[in-house]
Write a structure and sequence with these properties.
It comes from Isobaculum melis. Its main location: membrane. Pfam families: ATG22. The chain contains 20 helices and no strands. By secondary structure, the protein is an all-alpha fold. Helix 15 runs antiparallel to helix 18.
C-alpha cells in the first residue's frame, strides 16, 4: 500500500533541476528576438537606410550565419573535450554566455551607419549562444538522474518556449500601441538591451547551483591532451556504435524539424499570409509547444523516450503529407499547431536520450559532436526544399520532400539501444 502511495506522489523538481531548467528560459529569448524575428528585420532596415540592396543584405546575412555555424562546428568537439576536465566546464560556459550577452547588449549602441560592426557583433553573439549551449546541454547529466532526464529536459524546452515569448510580446506590445513616444529603431535597440538582461539575470541560478560533478582529472598539458582524446574518440568510433547510430538518425530527422521551423514564414508568405498574421501564428506555435514539450517528458516515463521520439517523427511525416494541400491560412494554422505539438518534444527527448547513452565523464566531448551533427544538419533540408520548389514551382512540394529525412532518421533510430549506459555497467 505504501508502495502504491509512493508511486502516486507528484513529480517535484529539485532546486538543482529548477536552476538548470531556468537556463533554457533565459537563453531562449535570444532565439526568437535575435535569430528569428527582431534582429533580422532591424538589420534589413539598417542596410536599406545605408543604400545596401535587398539582395546584398540578404547575402551578407547568409554569410555571417554560415560563418558563425562553421566556427562553432569546428570548435565544438575541442570545447567539449576541454570542458570534461575538472573545473573547466563552468568557466567555459560563463565565457561563452558573457560573449553572447555582451555582444547582444552592444547591438543597442552601434551607430546606424555601421552595419558591418553590427554583423561582427551578431557573429560573436551567435557563437557565444551556440557554444554556451554545448556546455548547458552536457550539464544535464549533473543536474538530474538518468531516470529523470526525459522529464527535466522536456521541461527545459517547454519553459524555454514561454520564456522566449515574454520579451518578444513586450516588444510587440510597445510597437503596436505606440505608448512610448520613440521611433521603431530606438524601440528595437531597447529590445536588444532587454534580451541581454533577460539572458543574464535568469542565468544566475544556473551559475549559483549547477556544478560539474562528472569530470576527468586535469592532465599536465590540457590542450594537447584534449586533442589526443579527441583523436582517440574518432579513431575508435566503432566502440561507440550505438552513439554513432543515434547521431546519424538525429542528423536526418532534426534537419527536417529545423527546416520546417526556419522556413515556415517563407511557406506562409507564399500562400498569401501577411507578416502580422505570421507573427501571431508563430506565437501560437510557442504557446502550443510549451505544454506538449512537458507532456512528451511525462509520457516518456511510461512509454520510453525512443518511442516518443518516433511519435514526434510520425507527426512530422503527417505534417509533410498535410503540406501538399496547404493553400489557406486555416490550413497553415493547423500545420503550425501540429509543429508545436512535436517540435519541443522531439528536441528535448533527443537531448536526454543522447545524455543517457554516452559516457557521463565525457559528456561535454560527446555533446560537442551532438552540436556538430545538429549544426551541419541545417544544410540538407533547405537545399532539398530549394531544389524541389525550383523544379515544381510550389513550395508545398518542397515541404513534402522533407518526408525522406524523417523516414531515414527513423530507420537509424530504430537500431539505437536506448538503455541508459549506467544500467549496462
Amino acid at each position: 500500500m505504501d508502495e502504491i502511495k509512493e508511486k502516486k506522489k507528484p513529480f517535484k523538481y529539485t532546486k538543482l533541476e529548477k536552476s538548470w531548467i531556468l537556463q533554457d528560459w533565459a537563453n531562449s529569448a535570444y532565439s526568437i528576438m535575435i535569430t528569428t524575428a527582431v534582429f533580422p528585420l532591424f538589420f534589413k532596415a539598417i542596410t536599406e537606410s545605408n543604400g545596401i540592396s535587398d539582395a546584398s543584405s540578404t547575402a551578407w546575412w547568409g554569410y555571417v550565419n554560415a560563418l558563425s555555424t562553421l566556427i562553432v562546428s569546428v570548435l565544438a568537439p575541442l570545447l567539449g573535450t576541454l570542458a570534461d576536465y575538472k573545473g573547466y566546464r563552468n568557466p567555459l560556459f560563463t565565457l561563452a554566455t558573457m560573449l553572447g550577452v555582451i555582444a547582444t547588449l552592444l547591438f543597442a549602441f552601434v551607430p546606424d551607419d555601421s552595419w558591418q560592426l553590427l554583423l561582427i557583433l551578431y557573429t560573436l553573439s551567435s557563437v557565444g549562444f551556440a557554444a554556451s549551449n554545448i556546455f548547458y546541454d552536457a550539464s544535464l547529466v549533473d543536474a538530474t538522474t538518468s531516470e529523470r532526464m526525459d522529464r527535466v529536459s522536456s521541461s527545459g524546452f517547454g519553459w524555454g518556449y514561454i520564456g522566449s515569448t515574454i520579451p518578444f510580446m513586450i516588444f510587440i506590445f510597445f510597437q503596436l500601441t505606440g505608448i512610448l513616444p520613440i521611433s521603431t529603431g530606438l524601440l528595437t535597440k531597447y529590445a536588444f538591451i532587454l534580451t541581454a538582461l533577460w539572458w543574464f539575470i535568469f542565468t544566475i541560478p544556473y551559475w549559483k547551483n549547477v556544478k560539474q560533478k562528472t569530470y576527468i582529472e586535469k592532465p599536465p598539458h590540457v590542450v594537447a591532451h584534449s586533442f589526443k582524446r579527441l583523436w582517440q574518440t574518432l579513431k575508435h568510433i566503432r566502440q561507440y556504435r550505438n552513439v554513432f547510430l543515434f547521431l546519424l538518425g538525429y542528423f536526418f530527422y532534426i534537419d527536417g524539424v529545423g527546416t520546417i521551423f526556419t522556413m515556415a514564414t517563407t511557406f506562409g508568405t507564399d500562400i498569401g499570409i501577411s507578416a502580422n498574421n505570421l507573427i501571431v501564428i508563430m506565437l501560437i506555435v510557442q504557446f502550443v509547444a510549451f505544454p506538449f514539450s512537458i507532456l512528451y517528458g511525462v509520457l516518456a516515463k511510461h512509454f520510453g523516450n525512443k518511442r516518443m521520439i518516433f511519435i514526434g517523427i510520425l507527426t512530422y511525416v503527417g505534417i509533410c503529407l498535410f503540406a501538399i494541400q496547404m493553400d489557406s491560412m486555416l490550413k497553415f494554422i493547423i500545420l503550425a499547431v501540429l509543429v508545436g505539438t512535436a517540435q519541443g518534444g522531439i528536441q528535448s527527448l533527443s537531448r536526454s536520450l543522447f545524455a543517457q547513452i554516452i559516457p557521463q565523464e565525457s559528456s561535454n566531448e560527446f555533446f560537442g559532436f551532438y552540436n556538430i551533427f545538429g549544426k551541419f544538419a541545417a544544410v540538407m533540408g533547405p537545399l532539398i526544399v530549394g531544389i524541389i520548389t525550383s523544379v515544381t514551382g510550389h513550395s508545398t512540394d518542397g515541404v513534402f520532400a522533407l518526408i525522406i529525412l524523417f523516414i531515414v532518421g527513423g530507420i537509424f533510430l530504430h537500431f539505437v539501444d536506448s538503455t541508459p549506459i549506467e544500467q549496462k555497467k
